[in-house]
Amino acid sequence: MGKKNCIVAQSGGPTVAINASLAGVVKGVKDSQVFDTIYGSVNGILGILNNNVINLSEIVANEETLNRLKHTPSMYLGSCRYKLPTVEESPETYAQIFEMFESLNNDEINAIIISSSVKNLLDTELNDINVKIKSIYNFKISIEKNDIVKVVNVTNTPFNVYIAGGDGYGSIDYTFNTDVNMVATINPTTRKILLTSIPRDYYVNLVGQGPNAYDKLTHAGYYGIEESVKTVENLLDTDINYYVKINFSTIQGIVDAIGGVDVYSDYDFYEQAYGLYHFTIGNNHLDGKQALAFARERKSFATGDVQRVKNQQKVVEAIVNKVTSSTALISSYDRILDSVSENLDTNMPSKDISRLVKMQLNDMRGWTIESQNALGTGQMGPTYTFPTLNLYTMLPDKDSVNSLKLKINEYLGK
User: Fold this and answer.
1) Among 82, 347, 368, 378, which residue carries the largest CB count within 10 Å?
2) Across the strands, what pairs with 373?
3) Cβ distance 187 to 413 under 8 Å?
4) Short-list 78, 88, 67, CA closest to 18
5) For residues 126 and 94, what is the distance between their CA atoms, to the nearest angstrom?
6) What is the largest CA-CA distance in the chain?
7) Per-residue b/e over 286-304, b at no fewer than 16 CB within 10 Å?
């Protein structure tokens, strides 16, 4: 059972908005008091936008609460897929996100429920909608996690780890869009690691949403880590044994915990995320914040996200090389992981992590790390999550994807 952060937010005027983290089918909500508090705060019309909520009884705590909502004339709920009738009239329903926000701006509804990931989109891709909200209440809801681990003997069997990187700081315990999508294929026998990176805008099938659900890979994260894993498995035609969820805080914390890393830069550039750091061609010794700035930068490069992906791989490679070459560091792996425990989530059992550490300590052999990247062609158009918006996506190059598959299979010994 996991937790999702939820925020009750208010717009600039009298309208109230609820930013609830409801991406994925929400079940297991036990405390009706939470919802009573929210609805009491709203005291008006409530709109809900959540592609995966099929029945509101999955959200509200119990039948009594549901019935109370149905018989509250002043409470109208708008939902993108489900319409809850009231005594006086049916509520507004919203097929698209921008329609709901338009109603919110026009005071046609008094509240909405969206995922926290959509709130993030308001500040990035959807900033032209021009909706401003502020938080007035915070709470958490419980969700069920599916166990998708595919356990192998990590000391003698090659395996895949999906690294999902979010674009934020703080707790990892919420649904986010994945700006970093990397598969580490690890062969413990040959001591080789293959890093396969996929651009965030790659136009792929979101397997769990149906055969026609094509979207940016980054949007798979809105539907949960399971959706991201299934989508990557489908794209690369391989099994993902384990996943690791990280964010900005994770990278910064790990790099600082191991005393910094030496990273090779292909270019001389000034990063623009913080406007603080200058990187030169060749090796650069970086602390946590510098490493994060190096991995985040794309605007300084003609190839944009393509070079950013390569730099992300360089940071991962630098971390692996430093930890695996130092007996002191690898012996302190538990301390390093504890330092970022709030910012890292994985389904790899702790006993498997311990086995890998003991294996490395036995002979301290070096690891060879190779990288590859998915290629494609940029295009503009609709996506599954936002079918009426004209968004940038990258159409996969079939030859590139086939090449990735062959290389992964080579490392897996297939």
Assistant:
1) 347
2) 197
3) yes
4) 78
5) 17
6) 74
7) bebbbbbbbbbbbeebeee
Q: Taking the complete model, does pTM exceed 0.90, yes or no?
A: no
Distance CA 343, CA 338 (A): 10
Rg (CA), the chain: 23
Q: How do 159-166 and 242-246 pair as beta strands?
A: parallel
Give dist(CA 408, CA 414) in Å, integer: 9
Read off the tokens for 91: 């509520």
CA–CA separation, 214 vs 217, rounded Å?
9
* pLDDT, tens digit, 9 for 90 and up, residues 342-384: 888 899 999 999 999 999 999 999 999 999 999 999 999 999 8
CA–CA gap between residue 290 and residue 292 (Å, rounded): 5
CA 260, distance to chain mean position in Å, is 25
Q: Which residue reads 């026009």 in tokens?
A: 106
Residue type, 322: K
The terminus-to-terminus CA distance of the chain in angstroms comes to 35
Beta strands in 247-398 (DSSP E): 261-265, 269-270, 278-279, 282-286, 345-346, 368-373, 376-381, 391-396
One-letter identity of residue 97: I
Structure tokens at 287: 């602390």
Q: How far is CA 203 from the centre of its chain?
A: 16
Length of the chain: 414
Mean of pLDDT values over 181-206: 96
Q: Whole-angstrom Cα distance, residue 20 to residue 370?
A: 41
pLDDT higher than threshold 80 for residue 114: no
d(CA 321, CA 155): 18
